[in-house]
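Q: How would the structure tokens look for this protein?
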Amino acid sequence: MIIKFYTKGCQPCYALTTLLDNMMIDYVSCNIEEEWEVAANNKVMSVPTLLNTKTGKRLIGFKNEEKVKEFLNDNNS
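A: Here is the predicted structure in token form.
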């Protein structure tokens, strides 16, 4: 499962959400201001962060479509 950690009003978070939606990527969203315990348990230090719960790999910050595809391909191997 891919979790997207974000905060409201975060422009890079919004841009990443738009990118993921346009790529039709399935993910779960976690607002770290409302679900801070989930973020803390997953050691999220900045937003946006994508986390693959199966592998533990993460992508921190806004990245372009190519980098997101690389992250997803690495996590599906």
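The radius of gyration is 11 Å.

The longest helix spans residues 11-22.

Upvote if useful.
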